[in-house]
Every structure is written in C-alpha cells, then in structure tokens.
Q: What sequence folds into this?
C-alpha cells in the first residue's frame, strides 16, 4: 500500500475476505474505460448549456451553470487527443454527460459521451505496477493504477486532481 | 482581555481616531480663522470626551495630554489666550502626539507622558489654572454629532456585511430567474407576485449596500493637515476647497483610494502648484488653489482633485515617450493632446527626473491607475498648460455589485460596467471607415478607433475587414481608457442591469480579458469584460499589425 | 417591572459602557441620546415611564446644565443623574441646585454607578 495516497481511495469498506474496497465512477474517454475515485465527484449531470468563453483553447468548452455555480467545462478527449480515430463527428454536447469534480479550491466539469457508472473494486483487483501504467495512453503521471472488474474488463484508474491541475490545463487560458 | 473589554477598546479606538481626525481638521481651520468660536467649542468638547474616555480605559498618557489640551482650548474659549504665534506649533505638535498615542494604544511602551509637551502646554496658559467655566458651548456643531452618529452604526463586522451582500447577490439572481420564468409562462398571478418580490429584493439590496457606505469625509478630514504639512515643506501657499464631503461610498473602495488620493495631492502641490513668486510673475494669485470634490451619480462616485498650477504639457509628454521608445515619433504625431496625457498611465512612464523642466504631475501615475483599475474604476486627466490639472476618478459605489450594460456578441452574453462606458451610439455603416487598416468612426470633431467585437473575441487573429460588417446600422459602445476613446461594435444591445460579479475560477482565471462572470436571470452565462485589459490586448495587436 | 433609563452622552464609547453597566444591574436602557436636543426629545417622548436620566454636561449643541434645567422645569419629578468629567465644585453645586439627584465624575467605578442609581430608584430588586 505504498502508493495509497495517489490512488483514489474513497469509501473504504471490507469485502467478505476482509479486503479494503474502493468506490469509483467509471466513464469512457475515446475507446478506453477510465475510473476516478468517487470522493472527488461532486455530481454527474446531463451536460448543461455551455457558453463558450472567448480566447480560450478549444478543449475548454466554456462555462456552465451547475446548481447556480458557474464552472468551467473541459473536454479531456480533446485535450489529450483521445478521440477515436473513426469517429467523424462529435456527438452533440447536449446528449453528453458532465462529471463535476470538486478540486479543493474550485469546481470543474468534464464531458463524457456515455453515461457514467459506479464501480467497486477490492484491493486485489487493482494493479499498480509500473509496467502496467506504462501501457496506458495517457501520461503515466496521471494514472494511479489498473483495475480489473469482476467481468474481466480493464479500467484505467485516473488521478483526476493531477489531470486537472496539470500545467496543460491550468495555464492554457492566458491571453 | 475579555470580550467586553475588547469591544470597549475597539469602540474607544474608533471614536478616538475619529475625534483626532476632527481635531486635526479643526485646528487647521482655526489657524486660518483664530476667532472662530464654534470650532474652539468643538475642539474643546472632543478633547473633553477623549480625556474622560481614556481615563475610563486607564490610558493615562492619552487622558493627561487630552486634559492639558482641553485646558488650553478652555483658555482660548474664555479669551484668556489666542490661537496665534508660537503656541500654534506647540499645539499642532501636541495634537500629533495625541494621534500617535491613539494609534498605538495596544503598545504599553508607547503610552508614556511626554513631559516636555505637557509642560509646554501648561506654559501656554500662563498661570496654568483649570478654568472650565461657562459650560455653554456654542451651537452649530451638530454636523459633527451627526457624523459621529453615522459611524456609530457601523459596529457590525465587515465580514458579516460582505457575507450578507453575497447572499443578497444570490437572491437577486434567483429573483431574475423567477422574472424570466414568469415572462415565459405568462401567468398573471405569478407576475404580480414576482413584482412584489422584486421590489423587496431591490430594497434589501439597497439597504445592505447602504449599510456598507461611509461618507468620504472620514478620508477628506485628513487632507487639511496633510496639505498643510506638504505645502509648508515645499514652501508653497495652498488654499484647499473641499466639496461634497458627505458623498457616500463603500468603505472598502474608500480604503483602496486613500493612498492614491494622498499621492495625487502630493503631486499637485509638489509638481503642479508653482512657488508664490513664480505665480506672481505669471499674474496668478500667490495662493495656489487645490480643490477636492466628490459627487455621486447613478451608482458611481466621482472624486476629482484639481489644481490651478502649471498644467501638463502634451508635447513634452510625447517627446518623452518617444525618447523612452514607448511609441514611434509617427505615432506620437497622430496622438491628440488628451491621448498624450494618457501616456502617463503607461507603466514605466515616470516623469520624475524631468519634473521641473516639464511642469509635470505625472509621477508614478501608472501605479495610481492600476490600483483604480483593480477595483473597476477609471481615472481621467484634464489639463491645460499654465492653467492647471484635473484628475477625475470614477469609482464604483460598491465592489461586488455593479451597474452594467448587457449586450450580445455572436451567441454569447457580455456585460460592461457602466463605469467604463462613455456613451452608446447607433450609427450607419457610412460613418465607419478604414484608415490604415484600423476601423474608425467619424463623429462631430473626433475620430474614434473601433473594435469589431465579433472578430476581436472569436477570431484567432484580430483583423477586421470591412466585409465582416454586414449590417447597415450598428450599435457601438464607446468606452474610455487611458484618456483614449474606443468604440466597441457589438451585435445586439440588451439592457442595463445590476449584476453580481463572480470571480473566474480555475482554469479560466488566467484569462485577463474578463474580470468575472455572472449568471443572468435566464440562466445564461454572461462574461464581464475588463475594459482595461481588453484595450491593452487590442493595442498590442494593433501595434504588431502595424509592423507590416 | 424593570426601571427605565435614558442615557445621554455625546460619546458612543461612554454610552456603551453606561448602557452595559446599567443593563447588567437589571435596568432597562430605553433610549440613548447624543445631543441636548435629542435628550429633551427623549424625555418628552417617554416621560411617563422614564425612571431616570443619566446626563453628560458637555454636549455638542447646548450645555448639559441647560438641558438639566429644561428637564426639571418641565418635569420636576424626573430623576436626573449627572455623569460628567467636569469635576469643579462650582459646577457640581450648580447642578445639584438645579435639581440633579446625584453627580458622578468620570472616570467612574462601575459599582459606584450601580450604587448611586440603586439608591435613587429605591434599591428595588430589578431582576425580572
């Protein structure tokens, strides 16, 4: 458990085998399945009306009002170049979902095209070895491990706070 | 110290500081008009209270000094001595020391008797006898008691007021939601309810806003003394005229501008107003005039500082800017006099080393300007060589809620604080021209540079060709920044409205084009344009364009 | 029933202290005034249930002694306690002559104020 901090540790429970359990929200970016710790997720909502903010890079979709809170909405697929190659046209934003992340001092949302799910993984279902992380397409520093669901599917565990606080996102908007 | 003692101490301090300010103002008045009995009575009363209150607080040094000063003014009131000659300086010194003690009540080491002063004050009243008789003080000092009253009522912590104001902002947003909703569903009953809710929300907002307001006099009262000191040091004679001291403004705004005003005043006396002998040569009155006035209109407060000194020389400013390689000499020639004065606001343009030659008042104005920008205000200069200079600050009455003009560019909503707006005009396309690649509007006797907002905001490279301007009639919002006018061509004017500005959150907070965002009643997002930065960005692009 | 008091002083600090002392002792400070005029108005308005007035002598508009005189002329029964930093015997005598019930010199002890007011108002237990 030396890397416990970087992994999304949310709701700790014990499985029958007395193992630590973690709860995640899963979603698709490009062709892969990703998961973030539910602890950071404020809510999942149908993407509200977004107003594009002038002089910001394309992956910042704009600002939207989520329960009266005005937050930035970003497209991580666009940012990290994860768009599936065969997809010619973007799905309309109106049909997408926004995962709202509570990042300590601010709130931010990112768009996913398919309905997110929740997932519980036990410690034994998570692999944090370096070579696994190496294979992922996202930069390794954003990834805290690889999970294997009960059905045998693989999901990439994202350190969402690191993703959002990355220089690539926080400094792009200067005019 | 228990809570009540803390409270007493805070109240004592606030009242003592206010009394000290008032006494400082009054003794300057008295120096000009030694026979003014009302002023003497007022000083006496303030010192008398201070003595009693400091005694209760067990602040012996303050109590004793106030007591001796009280005796002096008692003697003046009784006609035993007059406020003249060498006494005046000693009294000034003693009042200064009183202020020093008051401002350091938390430091026991400072709370010491100054025996030299105390003895001096005793000597002032030859005989040194306590003569507090004839308690009948003169009438007419009720203004002061009103003022004391006003600040009395601000004993709620500002944090609480800020919180309250934020909540009011939320309320206003909900109200606007409801109004839009009522319009959509066209239900008469809901409309009536919304209207009454709207009135209540408006008056709550107004009440909370006014609760934060203080009169500018709390700042202006400090000026006579400051001006006296600077003028004495510079060997100038300055007559101060203050107007509109009862104008009210948000306490935070007042706090922000206090240093700026002192800076501008110092500049006016040091660099603006000439020495008496020079003024005489120019057939001016030997006594220079400095006028500080405040007024308010439509949610804005205007404070101007004007002198009748040398004035600023646009030609000199231009050549200085060219010399400093800030602009090309071609550009310099194209600038109007007013625009040339605006160069003083450009960072790094300091006239300090050329002051005498130039007759300037432009020292460190870039800093002054940036502080005013930071609270969403504006600063303008008017000046005429040989006649004088006038600095006009326009300030928001409050920092959080601003009156703004809403408009659309493309699909998006934008807001511009009224403070930054000079005027709004509707013009036909015929009056718009392209001169050297720059869109301009010919109006009466002036040419205004235009910014086509749709291109400016949404195109990667800002370069407006005439082709983009398809409409016959165009709405232009004329803004004023750095003494230069810019016309913003917007797509659709919406309305005027009070908005609650929310700061930009990460990762948008690096976008300096906007000072914040607000949510409209319709639930739509609206971006608040930062005029200062928008024009700066525009100017940068313009100059890079002109290279080829 | 708790006794009603009007506090007259042009210093907010002093009014706060007096109000706290009196309220702690179980009295009811019904009003405060910062000028002679407001003081007279306050007495006029509430004279029927006003048990005592504390009066400062140096006020912005007119002399406390004049205010005292006006109150006593109109309402001879009104209890007025002078609380002032003026301590000369001549003034104290004048005030007592006009009809002040007591004269307290600032700075004062809290206990002293409570004691004097208690004596005048008949030492009733004021805790409701």
A:
């Amino acid at each position: 458990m030396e890397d416990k901090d970087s992994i999304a540790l949310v709701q700790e429970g014990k499985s029958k085998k007395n193992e630590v359990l973690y709860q995640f929200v899963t979603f698709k970016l490009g062709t892969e399945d990703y998961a973030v710790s539910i602890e950071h997720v404020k809510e999942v909502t149908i993407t509200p009306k977004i107003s594009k903010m002038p002089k910001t890079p394309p992956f910042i979709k704009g600002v939207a009002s989520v329960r009266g809170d005005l937050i930035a909405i970003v497209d991580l697929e666009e940012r990290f170049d994860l768009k599936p190659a065969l997809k010619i046209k973007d799905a309309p934003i109106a049909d997408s979902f926004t995962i709202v992340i509570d990042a300590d001092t601010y709130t931010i949302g990112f768009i996913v095209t398919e309905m997110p799910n929740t997932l519980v993984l036990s410690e034994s279902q998570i692999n944090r070895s370096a070579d696994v992380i190496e294979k992922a397409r996202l930069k390794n520093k954003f990834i805290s491990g690889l999970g294997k669901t009960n059905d045998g599917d693989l999901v990439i565990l994202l350190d969402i706070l690191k993703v959002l606080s990355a220089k690539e996102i926080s400094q792009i908007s200067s005019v | 110290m228990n809570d009540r003692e803390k409270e007493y101490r805070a109240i004592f301090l606030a009242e003592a500081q206010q009394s000290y300010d008032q006494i400082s103002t009054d003794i300057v008045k008295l120096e000009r008009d030694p026979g003014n009995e009302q002023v003497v009575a007022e000083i006496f009363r303030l010192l008398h209270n201070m003595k009693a209150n400091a005694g209760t607080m067990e602040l012996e040094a303050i109590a004793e000094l106030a007591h001796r000063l009280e005796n002096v003014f008692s003697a003046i009131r009784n006609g035993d001595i007059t406020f003249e000659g060498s006494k005046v300086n000693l009294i000034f010194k003693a009042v200064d020391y009183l202020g020093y003690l008051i401002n350091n009540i938390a430091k026991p080491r400072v709370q010491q008797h100054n025996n030299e002063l105390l003895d001096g004050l005793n000597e002032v009243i030859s005989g040194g006898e306590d003569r507090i008789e004839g308690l009948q003080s003169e009438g007419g000092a009720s203004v002061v008691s009103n003022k004391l009253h006003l600040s009395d009522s601000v004993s709620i912590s500002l944090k609480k007021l800020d919180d309250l104001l934020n909540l009011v902002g939320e309320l206003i947003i909900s109200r606007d939601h409801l109004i839009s909703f009522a319009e959509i569903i066209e239900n008469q009953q809901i409309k009536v309810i919304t209207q009454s809710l709207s009135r209540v929300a408006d008056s709550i907002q107004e009440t909370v806003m006014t609760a934060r307001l203080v009169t500018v006099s709390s700042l202006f009262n400090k000026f006579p003394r400051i001006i006296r000191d600077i003028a004495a040091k510079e060997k100038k004679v300055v007559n101060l005229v203050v107007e509109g001291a009862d104008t009210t403004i948000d306490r935070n705004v007042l706090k922000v501008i206090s240093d700026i005003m002192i800076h501008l005043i110092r500049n006016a006396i040091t660099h603006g107003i000439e020495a008496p002998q020079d003024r005489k040569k120019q057939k001016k009155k030997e006594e220079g005039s400095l006028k500080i006035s405040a007024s308010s209109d439509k949610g804005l407060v205007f404070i101007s500082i004007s002198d009748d000194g040398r004035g600023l020389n646009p030609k000199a400013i231009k050549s200085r800017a060219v010399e400093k390689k800030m602009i090309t000499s071609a550009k310099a020639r194209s600038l109007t006099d007013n625009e040339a004065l605006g160069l003083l606001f450009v960072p790094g343009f300091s006239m300090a080393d050329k002051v005498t030659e130039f007759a300037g008042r432009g020292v460190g104005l870039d800093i002054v300007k940036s502080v005013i920008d930071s609270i969403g205000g504006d600063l303008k200069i008017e000046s005429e060589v040989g006649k004088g200079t006038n600095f006009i600050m326009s300030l928001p009455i409050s920092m959080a809620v601003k009156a703004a003009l809403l408009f659309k560019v493309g699909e998006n909503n934008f807001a511009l604080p009224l403070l930054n707006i000079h005027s709004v005009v509707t013009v036909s396309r015929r009056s718009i021209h392209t001169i050297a690649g720059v869109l301009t509007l010919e109006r009466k006797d002036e040419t205004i540079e235009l910014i086509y907002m749709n291109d400016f905001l949404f195109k990667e490279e800002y370069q407006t060709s005439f082709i983009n301007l398809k409409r016959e009639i165009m709405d232009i919002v004329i803004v004023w920044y750095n003494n230069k006018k810019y016309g913003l061509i917007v797509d659709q004017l919406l309305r005027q409205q009070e908005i609650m500005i929310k700061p930009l959150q990460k990762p948008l907070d690096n976008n300096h084009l906007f000072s914040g965002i607000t949510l409209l009643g319709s639930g739509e997002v609206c971006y608040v344009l930062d005029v200062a930065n928008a024009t700066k960005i525009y100017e940068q692009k313009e100059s890079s364009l002109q290279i080829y | 029933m708790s006794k009603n008091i009007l506090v007259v002083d042009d210093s907010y600090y002093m009014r706060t202290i007096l109000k706290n002392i009196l309220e702690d002792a179980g009295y009811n400070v019904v009003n405060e005034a910062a000028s002679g005029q407001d003081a007279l108005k306050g007495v006029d308005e509430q004279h029927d249930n006003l048990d005592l007035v504390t009066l400062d002598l140096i006020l912005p508009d007119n002399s406390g002694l004049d205010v005292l005189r006006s109150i006593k002329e109109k309402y001879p029964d009104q209890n007025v306690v002078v609380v002032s930093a003026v301590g000369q015997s001549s003034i104290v005598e004048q005030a007592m002559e006009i009809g002040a019930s007591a004269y307290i010199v600032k700075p004062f002890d809290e206990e002293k104020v409570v004691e004097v007011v208690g004596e005048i108002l008949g030492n009733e237990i004021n805790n409701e």
